[in-house]
Design goal:
The complex is a heterodimer of chains A (459) and B (398).
Chain A lengths: L1 H5 L22 H9 L4 H27 L29 H13 L7 H19 L6 H21 L19 H25 L5 H22 L14 H28 L3 H16 L2 H15 L8 H27 L2 H9 L4 H16 L1 H14 L11 H8 L10 H31 L6
Helix pairs in contact in A: 4-9, 4-16, 5-6, 7-8, 9-10, 9-12, 9-15, 9-16, 10-12, 11-12, 12-14, 12-15, 13-14, 15-17
Chain B lengths: L1 H8 L11 H34 L30 H33 L5 H15 L3 H12 L10 E2 L5 E3 L2 E4 L1 E4 L3 H29 L5 H19 L4 E4 L12 E3 L1 H28 L2 H9 L4 H31 L11 H13 L2 H30 L5
Antiparallel strand pairs in B: 1-2, 2-3, 3-6, 4-5
Helix pairs in contact in B: 3-8, 3-11, 4-8, 5-8, 6-7, 8-10, 9-10, 10-12, 11-12
The chains are: A mainly alpha (459), B mainly alpha (398).
């Protein structure tokens, strides 16, 4: 390069670079973008224009309804009706009635939960979102402590806060003539059951020449922990009991969705392992269970749990309506969860199983320490997607007479205080907005995890 | 500890019975079986005790009894005074199948359109498709149904001043009053021509495939098929003197008379189900098309195929392999979701049989059992059909 520039004799060689000329006007800037994206040929242009016209027809009225013509404050229907309908608005007014949503906001969130006790629900909400956020963000430390908080402290505390706790146990095992039904009888029963379990475990470990100590420790830990939880449920904290038929709104939606997913995860893992097991009866049972629940619609499951389940219970045992719905939802989502987990298990290379076995790990140890941590991390997006589905499906409980978020909105339409032609549209718009925010947020998270987990090694 | 055990066991392979994985497996399975059998036996015992206590009959004796309630839409002859619960079941099942079938067709068409639109190079088409997908799949189906039913169809004008759709009939808050086709005497000839057209087209396409395999010559099967299946019947129809008349609905005070009624519940269910499912199908279609390697398109272009044949012969067949399995589960979902009809009282299987009939007879176990088994059978049938199709489309490996 330096050769040619320093050689004056070569007159045909250019000494300096030409200025770069600008790109043709059609190839850069907004014109090129428009040509490339909107008007690349005549079919494209026609489609673009049709859609633009459609958007012009739809967007301004929507914005007018939701913001510019909307009513944000008011005390009753007169604020949201035209003069001809008995209100104060101009004859051609048509806008959202957010004043009605505001007036009902409390009900949409808590249902008929007593006003003075709503702080309890708020604490549960705070604990939940406060505990969940750091769990979802991968870079936050203390994951293990957080998981223990969310899986043990949070459920126990929420149960006590929401229902009021103060359960009265009566016992069930010892017949009435030995001991009157009382809390003491319950704890005696509990001790007897613990002793029996310990005895069987001890017998088995002696029979198999193995050391009974770890088994005894585990049983004592589990039964002891359970006893602490049960004892906490019975402590009179002085909270006013709130029956579940007073729960409603977003509270019920979240309780069903979260309990459903929390209960279905362990059952789903068990079923997924069962389906991949080589024990024929276990495998058959898992396949039938999974395929049955996946083959029927959720609404029939809810009908079944609300109508049929009480028939299968012994006389005197009474399940709460919410609890029955929860059982149905949990069974249903466990089957879906099982398929998600199975996908994760299948994605783990065989070498991991073989490596674990070569190290001498038993089945339980192999699953707990090697396979499940990898498989479950892989299927986090799948679990979140199942949760989104479940969250949307909780709306079905309104058909069996529970008042979830949509159910509360639906039932608010019957109130004459706010009856107006725009009430329905406003209510549904608000419902759609809330569901969209929840579901869209979760789906973004799931997509984010998917990208994060994508190591690029996918075959 | 483990080392000591091993050193002791050397030479005398005395393994405890319970440590043999095979035997342990069987012990676990027998325990599971015993628990299940115990639960079932106790549950059934409780059930009979409870039924006896509540004075509810059991067995399927109710099937033959008169149901005595009206059903707003029925593909069969159904009368409140005479028809039995068995008939209710059949009517409900047919309504479920019809909404699922039409819904699947609509959702597929809409879903494929939107899925392809999401890959468009046109910014605004892509944007609208994305917004559609995100909004529709993130709002619960039940809310979709409520919005269509209570928010749109119920707010249509009263029958007294129904909206006039011209030759499409009338629209009001009692439904769509469509013109009813009345086939005349000679119409059957057109129908026969249509059937013959289909059969002949099948034979021609087979023959042309064989000929192409042998000689490489192509035959315009598509246009021949259009001519035979559509053109020939239209010609026959015109020649025989247009033997089809329409019974147009006439606006009346209470409800329009004449024509055929499509109830608003059906329209709301159909719109909600198909627009909701279409959002999911669109994502499946997009993923399927994106799964086909770009090299395939480039190779096809390099071989001299134009854009249309590239899509038809190279891209779509490969994308379909990825699309079909999840598409199946969307079809199943739509069928199962049609049970939400009970919320707006569209007379589907759940609504009339597991709803009204259950409330009247109180025989929850039998009715819910039959309903669930029906859905299970529908699911398994669809799955079987799609598996067969999937096997047909699968990659033939040499």
């Amino acid at each position: 390069m330096s050769d040619t520039s320093n050689n004056p004799s070569a007159a045909f060689v250019r000494n300096e670079m030409i200025e770069q000329s600008a790109a043709p006007a059609r190839a850069v800037g907004i014109v090129a973008w428009l040509r490339g994206n909107l008007f690349s040929n005549w079919v494209d242009s026609v489609i673009t224009l049709i859609i633009l016209y459609g958007l012009y027809l739809m967007i301004p009225p929507l914005l007018n309804f939701a913001f510019f013509d909307a009513i944000w404050s008011g005390t009753d229907r007169t604020a949201c009706t035209t003069e001809a309908q008995g209100g104060v608005r101009a004859p051609d007014w048509f806008g959202g009635c957010w004043a009605y949503v505001d007036a009902y906001f409390n009900q949409f969130i808590y249902g008929r939960y007593p006003d003075d006790e709503q702080w309890r629900v708020n604490i549960v909400f705070i604990m939940f979102f406060g505990g969940l956020a750091p769990l979802l963000i991968p870079s936050v430390p203390f994951k293990q402590a957080n998981i223990i908080f969310m899986s043990i402290v949070f459920p126990v505390a929420s149960f006590i806060l929401l229902t009021g706790g103060n359960l009265h146990y009566t016992g069930f095992l010892l017949p009435g003539f030995v001991m009157e039904p009382s809390a003491t009888r319950f704890w005696v029963d509990y001790a007897i059951i613990t002793a029996v379990v310990l005895a069987i475990g001890y017998g088995v470990s002696r029979g198999t020449d193995s050391d009974p100590e770890p088994m005894v420790k585990m049983v004592l830990w589990i039964m002891g922990g359970l006893a602490v939880v049960l004892a906490l449920f019975a402590v009179p904290f002085g909270l006013e009991p709130v029956e579940t038929d007073r729960w409603g709104g977003l509270l019920v939606t979240l309780v069903i969705a979260i309990t459903g997913i929390a209960v279905s995860l362990p059952i789903g893992i068990a079923l997924a392992l069962g389906r991949r097991s080589n024990m024929p009866i276990v495998k058959l049972f898992s396949v039938i269970f999974i395929e049955f629940w996946r083959g029927v619609p959720l609404i029939t499951v809810l009908f079944m749990s609300s109508v049929m389940l009480p028939l299968f219970l012994p006389e005197g045992v009474h399940f709460d309506k919410l609890l029955r719905a929860l059982i149905g939802v949990a069974m249903f989502s466990a089957a879906y969860m099982a398929e998600v987990v199975r996908g994760g298990l299948q994605a783990i290379p065989k070498g991991q199983y073989e490596g674990a076995m070569a190290l001498g790990l038993g089945f339980g140890q192999m699953m707990r320490m090697i396979i499940l941590p990898q498989a479950l991390t892989l299927v986090i997006p799948g679990i979140v997607n199942t949760f989104i589905g479940l969250f949307k499906d909780t709306t079905l409980v309104l058909i069996i007479g529970l008042f979830d978020f949509l159910g509360q909105i639906q039932s608010s339409f019957t109130d004459p205080t706010w009856a107006s032609p725009v009430q329905l549209v406003s209510g549904y718009m608000f419902a759609a907005f809330v569901y969209f925010v929840f579901c869209f947020g979760m789906s973004r998270y799931s997509a984010y995890m998917e990208r994060r987990l994508d190591t690029g090694h996918k075959s | 500890m483990a080392l000591q055990d091993v050193s002791q066991d050397v030479g005398q392979p005395k393994v405890a019975l319970f440590n043999d994985p095979k035997i342990r497996g069987w012990v676990y399975q027998i325990v599971l079986l015993v628990v299940i059998i115990y639960l079932v036996v106790v549950g059934v015992q409780n059930m009979f005790a409870n039924l006896a206590a509540q004075n509810i009959a059991s067995g399927f004796g109710f099937i033959g009894r008169n149901a005595g309630f009206a059903i707003s839409q029925s593909l069969l002859e159904y009368s409140q005074a005479e028809s039995s619960y068995g008939k209710v079941y059949v009517v409900g099942l047919l309504n479920t199948v019809s909404i699922a079938f039409i819904g699947i067709l609509l959702a597929t068409v809409l879903g494929f359109l939107i899925g392809i639109a999401r890959l468009s190079h046109n910014f605004i088409v892509r944007g609208v498709a994305t917004v559609y997908v995100e909004i529709f799949r993130n709002i619960p189906l039940l809310l979709h149904i409520f919005i269509w039913y209570f928010g749109v169809l119920r707010l249509l004008p009263h029958p007294r001043n129904s909206g006039d759709l011209g030759w499409l009939g009338l629209l009001n808050n009692r439904g769509w009053f469509a013109p009813k086709p009345l086939p005349q005497e000679l119409f059957f000839i057109t129908a026969i021509a249509f059937v013959i057209g289909i059969i002949v087209t099948i034979f021609i396409s087979r023959w042309s495939r064989q000929r192409q395999a042998k000689t490489g010559q192509q035959f315009p099967v598509f246009w021949t098929g259009v001519g035979l299946i559509l053109g020939m019947p239209v010609l026959v129809f015109l020649v025989t003197g247009t033997p089809l008349e329409f019974d147009y609905p006439v606006a009346g005070g209470f409800r329009p008379s004449g024509g055929m009624t499509i109830i608003p519940e059906f329209i709301a269910m159909l719109l909600a189900l198909s627009s909701y499912t279409a959002a999911f199908i669109a994502e499946i279609v997009r993923a399927g098309i994106m799964a086909v390697n770009k090299g395939q398109t480039e190779a096809a272009h390099a071989l001299g195929l134009r854009h249309g044949p590239t899509l038809r012969l190279v891209i779509i067949p490969q994308a379909m392999r990825v699309i079909i399995p999840p598409l199946t589960s969307q079809y199943l979902n739509l069928t199962k979701n049609s049970s939400l009809a009970v919320a707006i009282a569209y007379p589907d299987l759940v609504s009339v049989f597991a709803g009204t009939a259950l409330n009247q007879t109180g025989q929850a176990v039998e009715i819910l059992g039959v309903t669930m088994l029906t859905y299970l059978a529908l699911s398994l049938l669809t799955a079987a059909f799609m598996n067969w199709y999937n096997a047909k489309m699968a990659l033939v490996e040499r």
